[in-house]
Amino acid sequence: xxxxxxxxxxxxxxxxxxxxxxxxxxxxxxxxxxxxxxxxxxxxxxxxxxxxxxxxxxxxxxxxxxxxxxxxxxxxxxxxxxxxxxxxxxxxxxxxxxxxxxxxxxxxxxxxxxxxxxxxxxxxxxxxxxxxxxxxxxxxxxxxxxxxxxxxxxxxxxxxxxxxxxxxxxxxxxxxxxxxxxxxxxxxxxxxxxxxxxxxxxxxxxxxxxxxxxxxxxxxxxxxxxxxxxxxxxxxxxxxxxxxxxxxxxxxxxxxxxxxxxxxxxxxxxxxxxxxxxxxxxxxxxxxxxxxxxxxxxxxxxxxxxxxxxxxxxxxxxxxxxxxxxxxxxxxxxxxxxxxxxxxxxxxxxxxxxxxxxxxxxxxxxxxxxxxxxxxxxxxxxxxxxxxxxxxxxxxxxxxxxxxxxxxxxxxxxxxxxxxxxxxxxxxxxxxxxxxxxxxxxxxxxxxxxxxxxxxxxxxxxxxxxxxxxxxxxxxxxxxxxxxxxxxxxxxxxxxxxxxxxxxxxxxxxxxxxxxxxxxxxxxxxxxxxxxxxxxxxxxxxxxxxxxxxxxxxx
Length: 555
Fold this sequence. Notes:
Elements: H1 2-32, E1 40-43, H2 49-61, E2 68-71, H3 72-82, E3 92-98, E4 102-110, E5 113-122, H4 127-139, H5 145-162, E6 167-172, E7 175-181, H6 182-206, E8 214-220, H7 229-237, E9 242-243, H8 250-257, H9 276-299, E10 301-303, E11 311-313, H10 316-332, H11 334-343, H12 353-383, H13 388-395, H14 399-413, H15 423-427, H16 431-449, H17 457-479, H18 483-499, H19 503-530
Parallel strand pairs: 1-2, 3-8, 8-9
Antiparallel strand pairs: 3-4, 4-5, 6-7, 10-11
Helix pairs in contact: 1-2, 3-8, 4-5, 4-6, 6-7, 9-10, 9-16, 10-12, 10-13, 10-16, 10-19, 11-12, 12-13, 12-14, 14-19, 16-17, 16-19, 17-18, 17-19
């Protein structure tokens, strides 16, 4: 019985959404005098596969051919090109779509078209919130859902008229008409405009750009001409937006012009060249991994080569750290790997920002695990030993980091939340900790395997203790972020590590560092994605907010 009810509810929702599409198709057939064969539906850039599939089902219920879903900011950007706006290849563009809600998108123009770098939306930052706030002001109290529906049409007409006229008369059901003036509209619009401005800045930051990197910032949508909107964006971001003429028609016109593009052409995705800082985040752990595994192989001690019993003494801590560094290097290159895969993938989902990041992280985890396993196989074959112990020391320590990276990939795929600073910054491990840990383990291994000539014993022992100190500092740098806490914890932990340096403790020290890296990743997963600290809300620049304003009007 419950399944039947759920099915009926789903069918009712499809029918409710299909009805206006059916009427639009009928009117189009009446105008052109022939059946509709090409259907393009404009959808938000933040829509995932589930919503896109649902929209195709709606079109099918309306009796339309298979629709072509086009992303609103992409077709807006393409329409701007047709109107003479100059956007060079490689330039960045912001489309601020303010309708019933708001969606802000950062795009980059490539040789084959525009690609979405970041998009953020807020349903409470658009015309609907202004309608609710204006209705509250006219009625003198917070409007309920039923009462709001009765005055909704009158309020929307008044809102559009107040953009041009200083005052209008608004008819109300079951009460005398009231006069709405531009001051009421200004007060209703101000918090919404300020929220759109904040959303614009957050989207630019999520794309790892600054306002100075943008070729333009354009406002479209039915509410783009609201007063104070452009001024709030300019004040908050430092960039003056351009309100496109007839902004409520731009997306539809862009979708119509999209037919000029061959639908069978697969969009190319360029592979971004990482800047110097991001390249260092990839190169430092990569070279650290190679240096550690090289020293581990060359300094391993073989016993009983000519005897019956043969064994090899390997610094398991150094071997483990080489595997950890390899995984960190791959994860730092996650966004680049995602773009490489998307450039050669026919799947549309991999071309979105979330799709590329998700695929890139999963590819990075797989590549990192493969390199760690390769280290184990090569080392075991090099010494002629069973591979089992080498696989254990290479794969188990990186398992916690791999699990958390997969969790990040799921978050990116669902486009649930983009971390502050972007995904590339989130995936980059702390370079200082990596350098200190690599130098520390290298010195420890040198002290354990160097020829102990009488005149060198003291210096060799000192090198080992210094290595322990550096490794202890590296662990603190990975686990603790505030500088004061680092200074407090680094001294005792470094002394402990220096005191226990020995051949038997080397493996434990490497595992401890692997645990510290896993802790660092868990902290970032929690603080940047699962429970991020909300940004400080800045009050609107001028004018008080009415106490009787509905929650939706606050943006």
